[in-house]
Amino acid sequence: MHIDENELINKLENFQCGKCKLIYKNYWFKKNYLEYFYRKIDPVHSKGWDVNSNIFSKKIFLNNLNILLNENLDKFEKNKYIRSIISILNSIETNNEEQKLISNFIKHLKKLNTNFLNKKKNIIAMRIKKPKVFSRFSGFGSQLLFNHVESVVGKVNDILEIGCPRWGFVNNKKIDVINRSFLRKKTCGYWNKKCEIKNVNCIRTLNKNVKLVNKLHGGYDFTGIYLYLDHTLRPLKLIKSLLKKSKSCGIILESGNDHLRKGIPIQHFTLWNYSSLRFLANLCKKKIDSSFELIEKTGNKFYLIY
Q: Please, what are the domains in the chain?
């Protein structure tokens, strides 16, 4: 692109629609730039591959901490290990007292307080057992969320998902549905043919009972769209096309309030909130439900359009 990084960031300003309250970038990257970036530079969305992986473990936590504290790393590598360790810490199931301990450890981790970290690391490691629900290591395919969907829209037998194949209900064998489908949608973003680890494409990690489809066939009771809507340039067109074939759509997005405090990620074209999604639902002549609060503890929000 032949442009300085800071200059590029400064050019991308955020605007808010006065009518629907959607926040969006003033302009966006050309299609060929996006395709090159997501196929050549950053083709893998790490959060997807973290679901049900072995990364959430005492061994990985202690190993990454040991590398961070004892090896000669540059600034980029240090930040990478710090983020990796924090992702594990934030996924630990804790009570209030344990959360204070975790938060304090993270504070010292960011300052690289070696003495404190070495003193407390084994205490922290003992608490790494099972990732909390809806964390990056457990995904969004929880029975609790599925039960909520059925409590609003009724019995769900046919489900469809788009985006990351590892995040939702389709790969949870315990979910009681008849048909599971995953839409292979061409996208200028993540989850393309180059999204692979050790020569295994993310699509190939789907269970054998999940049907791969290249177009919408209709008759779906529920369609899941997780951490996807803020990447698309034509959200209304996408949601309208899905609701023509599906009775309901479940949308998971990172919390808009968190992003307003920390800054909107540069890779997100839009930032949604309840007002903008209610406006979207009204355009589709549908209702919206946002009452599922359990997921909000992980910095995400679930919206059900039906």
A: 57-125 (no CATH), 143-305 (3.40.50.150)
